[in-house]
Amino acid sequence: MSTAILTGQPVPGSSLESDLRSLGFDVRLADEAGDAETLLAAVPADQRVAVVDARFVGHLHALRLGLTDPRFAASALPGAVSVQPEARRALTRAVAREGSASGGLAVATDNLAERLTAALDADGVVVFRPELGTLVAAVPADPQERNEVRQAVSAVDDEAVRLRSAVKARDGFFTTYCISPYSRYIARWCARRGLTPNQVTTASLLTALIAAGCAATGTRAGFVAAGLLLLFSFVLDCTDGQLARYSLQYSTLGAWLDATFDRAKEYAYYAGLALGAARGGDDVWALALGAMILQTCRHVVDFSFNEANHDATANTSPTAALSDKLDSVGWTVWVRRMIVLPIGERWAMIAVLTALTTPRITFYALLVGCAFAATYTTAGRVLRSLTRKARRTDRAAQALADLADNGPLASLVARATRVRLGAPLLVALGGTAVLAVSLFSGVTWAPVAGAVVYTVTSGQALYRPLKGALDWLVPPLFRAAEYLTVLVLAAKADVNGALPAAFGLVAAVAYHHYDTVYRIRGNAGAPPHWLVRAIGGHEGRTLLVTVLAALLTAAQFKVALTALAVAVALLVLVESIRFWVSSGAPAVHDEGEPA
């Protein structure tokens, strides 16, 4: 139970007390500053506490936004302030100072909540102030002003605003016009029945897994059912975020589940399509793995670019200016959002093609569409980077180094080698090119030699901070090199089960890379060094896979890939789950993938 301390005498006819109770607050009255200090001291230290001016007039949802959002240690709106336990000491100090200064005078006309908010600001506490839009929140000074504010409250439909604000402000065309118009009502239905976003997220995952199972049957009826279930899974995927925003049920665990389950659903569906195709005599595992690699690398490009420019200054890019101008032309916004094939358009395309065509055609369309989208977005970001006059910060450079995922071998090379080969991106490109040529050389041990060169250049690429204009391309380049090495060598093994084993290995490693991204987003840094060392880093895994391919028979290589996939998956999952359910996990709330 949270506690709300109402300062001053309640206004006759006011619904403030009942509104606060409906939001889960135990309401207590304070006539004097000393009373507020006493009441605050009586509230258990692990509870949220709010101080609200008894003259407050406003919408219930305004109070909800300002007083109950769990993401912020302190939040405020006119006439009210709320703190969670981590900001409790600062509020206690502020109330004590007010009690001493007032000398016991009544606080009804003193607007104590506003002064406490100012005191928290002065104390260095970050106070969140929600954007209210058309919602009303005010402290009228006299009866005439109170009547005017009440009329303003009556003129705005509180519930309509709440429903509308539950939908993400920036989303894809398909999601905005084909899903959100009704999924928001599903979110409200869930909220009124006490369902949580995590439960809806889990239901979305289960629905997608059932869809993957239907696709794995390889029958036309199974493909049709799979397409329909995949669309329904996406509806639930939109609903869980809308439910979180509608009822302010944010949680660290929920953010992690939402982010990771999206990847699990899509890639499990790829596997289901590949299994279904195999039942019909068509082996498309290479296409499925290629689609997963392409999609993962697209995301790494997005993440790397965003982290590189997270706190950059002096953005004077003409490309960015052109993009801003195009945003003023409505139809160009939607076209540009659609051609990058965001999750809504992508899943809709996959669902329709699954139901009407074959897995092979579905993967071909997916690969072509994602390749075009990746080319378009990457080219635009390269142009922005080349024309932008900005200084990259140490934080951004460290984030890129963490995303690179260099392991112990690359670190050893970086420390032991005294000769520096050149700019980080050029060095990484050179090593990747050598590795790529070696994979297709036809010589048994050539990939091992290529992987050795790749390991050396990986260490060299990170010997200095990644602050160059295009250095944000280094992490996605490493991702592509590692994943494609596994794909090529598994395809060359030409033995039944090698590509599915490679699919599992890439999925496990990709999960580790996504986990790294979300930790960095929450300012928690990269995964612990022991984990990176234990799974070898990208260069260690690449070298290991090439050595296994050279030493073992095709059948043995398949078994080795499977064992490696299981080992990596167990290590990264156990550590990831331990971190995200711990009290130290960051409160990251993903508003949707960028592509």
Structure description:
The protein has helices at 16-22, 33-42, 60-67, 88-102, 112-122, 143-154, 158-165, 173-192, 197-216, 220-247, 252-279, 285-308, 318-327, 330-339, 343-356, 359-387, 394-404, 408-416, 424-439, 446-461, 474-493, 498-521, 529-534, 537-551, 554-580; strands spanning 2-7, 25-30, 49-53, 57-58, 74-77, 80-83, 127-128, 137-138. The two termini are 40 Å apart. It has 595 residues and is mainly alpha-helical. A six-stranded mixed sheet has the order 2-1-3-6-5-7, with helices on both faces. Strands 4-8 form a two-stranded antiparallel sheet. It contains 25 helices and eight strands.
The share of residues in extended strands comes to: 5-15%
Mean pLDDT, to the nearest integer, reads 90
Question: How many distinct beta strands?
Answer: 8
Largest sheet: 6 strands, mixed
